[in-house]
């Protein structure tokens, strides 16, 4: 949402298309995440039958594709908008850099979708490892870039006070990290839910399912907060001297 308040944007052009994509991805990310959370409320209800809870699990998994895709594509769409500003003058004077960013992001999206589809095939296992590696690397690297942008006087030679952008990049990086932590907390969920469907409900199974979902909740709330913070920063651009 880097350019929602930019002046002189009228009609259909590359800039307006980039803004539209960025806003749409934001909406699908947050909206899809809320849908996943709502479905999870039925999964932890022990009084609901296993069949109904299995349907809720399928709904949760199906809805998760929206935030998964949005998280990946927010990065190149944001960089596309950034390329039109002062920072873009320094790093994107040649269009092939932007092409490279989109190509790498689409490759990451492909790996992420393969991981989403699951399965116990060599390519599925490789995709899961590759997706996690990308997420760890991006969360660490982007936090470093964001903090540098906040701390430096003229980060990357830009003198328009882009500290808001550094904060936004940091928020996005932390969202990626929170998503990784959610995956870690869900590790016990699959085996426990499998036992629920095959052997029925037991206190141990219910505790494993409930505990796994509950441990995810702080990370989910953090993502919602960080996404809203990033959206606010992209719209308001506090402190920026670029007009």
From TrEMBL:
Domain of life: Bacteria
Record-given protein name: DUF2269 family protein
Residue ranges of the TM segments: 20-44, 65-83, 95-113, 133-152, 164-182, 219-236
Organism ancestry: Bacteria, Bacillati, Actinomycetota, Actinomycetes, Propionibacteriales
Transmembrane as UniProt keyword: yes
Entry annotated with the keyword Membrane: yes
UniProtKB keywords: Membrane, Transmembrane, Transmembrane helix
